[in-house]
Amino acid sequence: MLSNGGEIFRTNELMVYAARQFGLRECSVFTIANGIFVSAIVEGELYSCQVRHIPLTPIHLERVEAMNDLSRRIAAGVVGPEEAKAEVHRIRAIKGAGPVALTLASALGAGGFGFLFGGNLRDCAMSALAGLLLYVFILNFCNRFHIRKVMTNILSSVLVTLFCCVALHLGLGDHLDKMIVGAIFPLVPGVPLTIAVRNFMENDYIAGLVRLTDAVLVAGCIAVGVGCVITTWNTLFGGIVL
């Protein structure tokens, strides 16, 4: 649950419910955004402690929902240890949307946000094409060559901003700011930022700070990519009216 974007308190609740339901009476859990610390006394004799590192991987809400459902069934006592273990393996194997669906969703989202921010049909069409190009680039270059997250966001924002500048230069769009805003929106870390705020509201300040730092870093990378392209374009080809 934690590695796929679930909140800290839900992860803690799931572990506590499972420990109680499966007969582990003395169990203590401490969870942060990228780590879980668990200690337990088994049969009054064995004291064990486990530490698990949880990387900040891409968010997969379908798995989080499946784990929430499993948590409720464990708390209700309808799932035993072996069944829960098999269910966790099944949930871990759940695959997300395929590359075609992700690419089309990026194009649709980019075009839609371009419209929401005041772009006309020509601007929205260019934003949609930029969003399409964005995920083609991420899936076929960044993921294939295992480019780090920071560079992926910078290079992706550079690519879509350059595409929008060229489109404006060729007369294919009318408002560069609307095209760029729509095009980069698939990169915006909306869910991590929401999770960070939720963690702060639940008094999980360490976890909230980790998620917030990750979201701010992504936003900064996007700003760097967009700013570099616009500055370079202005220097080489004259001013751009945003």
UniProtKB/TrEMBL annotation:
As for membrane topology, the entry says: Multi-pass membrane protein
Instruction: Give the protein's recorded name.
Output: Threonine/serine exporter family protein
Give the main location.
membrane
Keywords annotated in UniProt: Cell membrane, Membrane, Transmembrane, Transmembrane helix
Q: Membrane-spanning residues where?
A: 100-119, 125-142, 154-173, 179-197, 209-233
Look up and give the organism this protein is from: Pseudoflavonifractor hominis
Could you confirm whether the keyword Transmembrane appears in this record? yes
Tell me the InterPro entries matching this sequence.
Answer: ThrE-like_N (IPR010619), ThrE_Dicarb/AminoAcid_Exp (IPR050539)
Subcellular location per UniProt equals: Cell membrane
Instruction: Give all residue intervals belonging to the Threonine/serine exporter-like N-terminal domain.
Output: 1-232
Superkingdom of source? Bacteria
**Family to which the UniProt record says this protein belongs:** Belongs to the ThrE exporter (TC 2.A.79) family.
